[in-house]
Design a protein that fits this description.
The complex is a heterodimer of chains A (611) and B (148).
Chain A (H helix, E strand, L loop, with lengths): L1 H15 L7 H10 L16 E2 L13 E7 L11 E3 L2 E5 L6 E5 L5 E6 L21 E3 L2 E5 L4 E6 L5 E6 L14 E3 L2 E4 L11 E6 L5 E6 L4 H4 L7 E2 L2 E2 L5 H4 L18 E3 L4 E5 L27 E6 L5 E6 L14 E8 L2 E9 L4 E6 L5 E6 L7 E4 L6 E3 L5 H4 L5 E4 L13 E2 L6 E6 L1 E7 L13 E7 L8 E7 L4 E8 L8 E3 L3 E5 L4 E6 L5 E6 L9 E5 L2 E8 L3 H6 L29 E6 L2 H4 L2
Parallel strand pairs in A: 1-34
Antiparallel strand pairs in A: 2-40, 3-4, 4-5, 5-6, 7-8, 8-9, 9-10, 11-12, 12-13, 13-14, 15-16, 17-18, 18-19, 19-20, 21-22, 22-23, 23-24, 25-26, 27-30, 28-29, 29-32, 30-31, 32-33, 34-35, 35-36, 36-37, 38-39, 39-40
Chain B lengths: L6 H16 L20 E2 L2 E2 L1 H13 L1 H4 L12 H7 L2 H10 L1 E5 L2 E5 L6 H4 L2 H12 L13
Antiparallel strand pairs in B: 1-2, 3-4
Classes of the chains: A mainly beta (611), B mainly alpha (148).
Chain lengths: 611, 148
């Protein structure tokens, strides 16, 4: 019975590929609802990264084996993951941003390959490696956001460019790393460069011809941010005051105020609302962002914020700033996962985000009201709690790099600048009601100092030393199951390194994730017991996906170590408890893995699959 | 070995001279004078002078994002605590000022030119001294302690 369902799902896809629907997102929604596909990076518009496929389950996952592999020919960090539509798989690489269309009927034979010509001087403005978080599909087109700020639409049949548009300027420190998302008749693109004094924005282009539909800036006057202070709400009330995106900054610092948009975008098809987060407020030295030298009035809006915007106009419906006046580089770009749950007897449309700052937020995604904010790693110490009346964190003055001051070392701040979770997307199972979250377990010392802005050059102004969370298991990561209603960790798997891979929950009651050493691991979704693991050729910072081909469920992942963990952890982190000069030998990533992009595809052996 | 240096270097040398006066706040008077060729850093009981400490900080702001923490290298860019053993001071300054562009197979390596960036150039001697201290094993990874 199970197999028949899978076959039907795969069969539908071929039919759906024909004909252009009125709105691209209807097509994408249909494609993603077929469990045989993996039609977008986060699995569906709500960002669940969940699959209804259940052929691979707790009883047989231990027998998984490699079906085939494919080298991408690129050495740098491979974030994002494969897209599968029907009998074709699309994969992408870091710079130079190759795209391959692979034939699943022939174990990944190349149908077409695309490699853009990009200026090489874009490489050093990409903070933390030349990563790319993947392509999007809609309307017979593949959308690729290239490092050099070119957004290109490729014909999915031939790989030929249909149109392309420039979304930024790398000589100003701008680049593209985030995966585009197609919603309605628009493709949404973010911008990277938070360490280069970039001014962030989200931009929507019409998928037909690449013309710009709207651009919403993260800082600046209300007109630029697409805020109406009488209509746009914050904590359920109209914002009221005008131009907070200018007033909460000293001088014209908002013009290099960050709020970059390099994370993930989710979309509610019923209310036609897009949700995303904005990054750190420019320079890491908070004193340079303080109005009149005080924290009061220096929120640096709208950095570190969740925006809910109308897909047609880009107008902000509501906004919530998670970390006003950032002092730790807790970019608020993590994915906003959309779920429906009953709270106090009432069915609510919710938004859940596991922020870099270590708090898991639950909001009503229609009104933007904050419902809860709880620490999802007990070591988080920069704030005691989030005030539910104001929505503001209660900052611990001892861990405030602003209160401690410029040229002063603020010690033992948890989490470190890369957050309790970075871009690696979590997964949500509507069946168990739990989130499965890849996390970092790292703390830091932070010392801000004065810097000057130079266009196209790093604009940081702080030095950070990181180390494994003290008085814990000694590792730098955990993979946790989180109950969003009780706001508690159900189980936790300690990991030697930060877990930097996107997770996948399945109806087979098995959740998959990757590790920086290169393991793909499968865990029991109820207990966290590891049921299977396999070591791929390189560390995994990509996201694990699943699909059906030829009636069999497959698991696919890109390995290829790099990204920020490849830079921060390659040579190991210093353990301050062990004294000056000591490095835990176990913490040296280069001892476990080396560079190299490889796609690995798994399935069950024939005798199990055909049962 | 005499090297033909770009004009940026002359400029940077002037800026450095100003910088060491400006950063005098944490200096200890009784330490030997620094010289990039002959005495790039001072160390006493495992602790470093202000300039070398400042080199650690500036390295963290401008270099660590690619070259990894504490000069140890990364999956993206080489370990500078090793590189400075292959380069003399003039060559080091030349690379920092003008950048570098290496293409060999799929290993694309591009370093930006920092010649116009005061956050780097004004502190280049301090960064050099810090990396020399790391290369010599005088200090370990992580934040060095300062002579007070």
């Amino acid at each position: 019975m199970k197999m028949r369902r899978l076959l039907t799902a795969a069969g539908c896809v071929a039919v759906l590929g024909v004909g252009i629907p009125a709105q691209a997102n209807e097509e994408v929604e249909k494609l993603q609802s077929k469990s045989g596909n993996w039609a977008m990076q986060l699995g569906n518009y709500k960002g669940h990264r969940y699959s209804e496929l259940d052929e691979i389950d707790k009883s047989n996952v231990g027998k998984l084996q490699v079906a085939w592999q494919f080298s991408t020919g690129v050495l740098r960090g491979h974030e994002g993951g494969p897209i599968v539509i029907g009998d074709a798989m699309y994969i992408h690489t870091p710079f130079p941003n190759k795209v391959y269309k692979l034939d699943l009927d022939n174990q990944g034979e190349v149908i077409w390959a695309y490699e853009p010509r990009q200026p090489r001087d874009v490489i050093p403005v990409m903070c933390c490696d030349t990563v790319n978080r993947g392509i999007a599909y809609a309307d017979g087109k593949i959308f690729l956001a290239q490092a050099d700020n070119t957004l290109v639409a490729l014909d999915s049949k031939t790989g030929e460019p249909v149109w392309s548009v420039e979304n930024g300027d790398h000589t100003e420190g701008e680049s593209l790393t985030a995966a585009p998302v197609v919603a309605k008749d628009k493709v949404l693109v973010g911008i990277s460069g938070g360490e280069f004094g970039v001014r962030g924005h989200l931009t929507a282009y019409n998928i037909d011809d690449g013309s710009m539909a709207w651009r919403a800036w993260s800082t600046g006057p209300d007109a630029d941010v697409k805020i109406d202070p009488e209509e746009t709400t914050m904590m359920g009330e109209p914002i009221g005051e005008q131009d907070l995106g200018v007033k909460t900054w000293p001088g014209d610092e908002w013009k290099r105020g960050g709020g970059t948009t390099w994370g993930w975008f989710t979309y509610d098809t019923e209310t036609e609302t897009v949700y995303y987060g904005t990054g750190n407020p420019g320079v890491w030295n908070p004193e340079q962002r303080a109005v009149d030298g005080t924290r009061k009035g220096s929120d640096n809006k709208w950095s570190m914020s969740i925006f809910a915007r109308d897909i047609d106009t880009g107008e902000a419906k509501w906004v919530y700033q998670k970390t006003p006046f950032d002092e730790w580089d807790y970019d608020g770009v993590n994915e906003n996962i959309l779920i429906e749950r009953e709270i106090d007897g009432e069915q609510r449309k919710l938004l859940v985000t596991f922020d870099r700052n270590g708090f898991a937020y639950v909001l009503d995604r229609v009104t933007g009201e904050l419902l809860s904010a709880e620490k999802y790693d007990p070591t988080v110490n920069w704030a005691s709690h989030v005030d539910m009346e104001t929505g503001r964190p209660q900052v611990n003055e001892e861990k405030s790099t602003f209160a401690q001051g410029t040229n002063t070392i603020t010690k033992n701040i948890c989490p470190a600048a890369l957050g309790t979770k970075d871009q690696q997307p979590a997964t949500y199972s509507p069946e168990t009601g739990l989130f499965y979250v890849p996390t970092n377990h790292i703390c830091m010392d932070y010392e801000p100092y004065q810097v000057q802005y130079v266009a196209g050059q790093p604009y940081v102004g702080a030095t950070v030393s990181m180390f494994p969370a003290p008085n814990s298991h000694g590792g730098m990561g955990n993979f946790i199951a989180w109950d969003p209603i009780k706001a508690e960790i159900k189980w936790s798997i300690p990991e030697r390194f930060a877990v930097w891979s996107g997770a996948l929950a399945t109806a087979g009651n098995v959740v998959f994730y990757g590790t920086l050493e290169g393991y793909v691991k499968a865990a029991d979704m109820q207990t966290g017991e590891i049921l299977w693991k396999f070591k791929t050729p390189s560390g995994i910072i990509g996201n694990i996906n699943t699909y059906v081909h030829d009636g069999a469920q497959h698991i696919a992942v890109l390995s290829g170590v790099g990204g920020w963990p490849g830079i921060g952890m390659a040579a190991g982190l210093t353990d301050p408890q062990a004294g000056l000069g000591a490095v835990g030998a176990h913490s040296k990533l280069s001892q476990y893995t080396q560079l190299g992009g490889v796609l690995t595809v798994f399935k069950l052996p024939e005798e199990l699959a055909s049962r | 070995m005499p090297l033909k240096l770009p004009k940026y270097v002359v400029l940077s040398a002037l800026l450095c001279a100003t910088a060491s006066v400006a950063s005098a706040d944490g200096k200890t008077a009784d330490l030997p004078a620094l010289d990039p060729q002959t005495n790039p850093y001072n160390i006493r009981d495992g602790k470093v002078d202000f300039e070398t400490y400042n080199g650690y900080r500036r390295y963290g702001g401008a270099c660590a994002r690619c070259h990894g923490p504490s000069g140890t290298g990364s999956s993206f860019a080489p370990a500078l605590m090793d590189s400075v053993e292959q380069l003399d001071y003039a060559e080091f300054v030349n690379v920092v000022v003008n950048g570098k562009n290496i293409e060999s197979g799929s290993r694309n390596r591009v370093m930006p030119a920092f010649g116009t960036n005061p956050n780097v150039i004004q502190h280049i001697n301090d960064i050099w001294g810090y990396l020399q201290a790391r290369a010599d094993g005088a200090i370990g990874p992580g934040r060095p302690e300062r002579i007070r």
